[in-house]
Amino acid sequence: MSGAGNRPAAGPGSGTASGPAGRTGRRAGDSGTREAILAASRKRFAEHGYDGATIRRIAADAGVDPALVHHFFGTKERLFAAAMRLPVVPGELLAAAIAAGPSDPAESLGEFLVRTVLQAWEMHEIRDIFVGLIRSASTSEQATTMLREFVTEAIVGRLSAVARPGDGTGPAGAQYRASLVASQVVGLAVTRYVLGLEPMAAASVDMLVAAVGPTVDRYLTGELS
Amino acid sequence: MSGAGNRPAAGPGSGTASGPAGRTGRRAGDSGTREAILAASRKRFAEHGYDGATIRRIAADAGVDPALVHHFFGTKERLFAAAMRLPVVPGELLAAAIAAGPSDPAESLGEFLVRTVLQAWEMHEIRDIFVGLIRSASTSEQATTMLREFVTEAIVGRLSAVARPGDGTGPAGAQYRASLVASQVVGLAVTRYVLGLEPMAAASVDMLVAAVGPTVDRYLTGELS
Across A17-26, A72-81, A158-167, B79-88, which has the greatest mean pLDDT? Predict the structure, then answer.
């Protein structure tokens, strides 16, 4: 077992997956306990989905106190990212990007979000793991459910906070807008990195930001009917 | 072996997969010969991709004359659709839609294309087979190559005919525009039908046409930088 899941965490909000929350020293047996928690997490997330898996039950499966799970991993979202060996916590990355906003004042939020996502995907270690996640999600019903619930909570939930609210009576509200953004971003990832469709796959990040950013802006806040 | 691959063809340009081109009567042994050709096609397409598989080699593998392959299946595109058991020939459906144009003069080409694609996907028999194709393409390199080459020729090629041409020196031309359309349409299909991401998955075709149609219009002919 190597890699991302065992690295010490960077600071909170950095978007880096895994690592103990506020750990002050390494004890003998930590590594075995962490692995037991991660193994129990993988099984529970796969069998019960992201929503259905609880830290309490994962702790019970691993034979540890729930407080220890929180101590090692912080939130359920971070535990999921560590269990899936994601090198970043997607929702935290997104939340940090939304909070920071475009560093270039000439760039719109949509352009900035597309740039942030593409820059993450351009890193091989990130791309390979997400491509693996997409592959497994497309082949198993259980993995599909798990990914849908995770994307709904971590991505759509956070995006909808910056989307124009609807009138509250129909599906045309902020969640709908956020799920449209997800459709374009997922499509970009699948056609560029999984399918390798040219000439889009060879286009620069700047070109794609200019082309796709305004789509994201319109889905978030523009006229949709 | 059942279903789509054995149905008689509708007229040319109808977008219906398979069936002999201009067959006038059924001979003894036709069915076995057809199956031999389809089996040889599946193997060649999988091993050599869509571009690398030739009708001449498929015919040789099946032990028949290439003219017989053309007689039974018409084009390579139709042979591929029949071999993959697609209930429609995607590129022919697209070409027919582009040629016909929106029946409602108030509808843009982008809106009409999104409506055409969604209406096809709403049919269970079509959706199930395409979801299967996407699943297999995401799990095997060979299947990925085959699907990429097919989408490039059948979909991107035809879409680029209605896209605004570039200056011919960079990737920003008609093919690039068409591949951006593919990114949004593939993303719509994956998030709505594979992932089932709400509220988008529950939205009506009309809602999605209104939301996504203008994106397709802009990718085809609008400003992208």
Answer: A72-81
- The CA distance from A156 to A171, in Å, is 14
Burial of A146 (0-12, 13-18, 19+ CB in 10 A): buried
Predicted TM-score (pTM) of the model is 0.83
For testing contact with chain A, the best of B141, B190, B207, B223 (most A CBs within 10 A): B190
**Burial class of B14 by CB neighbour count within 10 A (0 to 12, 13 to 18, 19+):** middle
Among candidates B173, B182, B215 on the partner chain, residue whose Cβ is nearest the Cβ of A197: B182
CA angle, residues A20, A25, A26, in degrees to nearest 5? 80
Q: Is residue A85's pLDDT more than 90?
A: no
Is residue B200 within 8 A of residue B192, CB to CB? The reply is yes
- Give the model confidence (pLDDT) of B80-112 as tens digits: 999 988 888 989 989 998 998 888 889 999 999
Tokens of B160: 């680029």
H helix count then E strand count, chain B:
11, 0
Q: Which residues of A touch B151 (CB under 8 A)?
A: 195, 197
Cβ distance of A152 and B198 shorter than 8 Å: yes
CB contact under 8 A, A137 and B191: no
Contacts of A152 in chain B (CB under 8 A): 197-198
Residue A206's H or E segment, with its range, is helix A205-221
ipTM: 0.82
Nearest by Cα to B32 from B68, B75, B4, B66: B68
Note which residues in 164-193 of chain A have CB less than 8 A from chain B.
171-173, 175-176, 179-180, 182-188, 190-192
Residues of A in contact with B173 (CB under 8 A): 199
Helix (H, G, I), strand (E, B) or coil at B88: strand
Tell me how far apart the alpha carbons of residues B175 and A35 are, in angstroms, rounded to a whole number: 48
Sign of CA dihedral B172, B175, B179, B180: positive
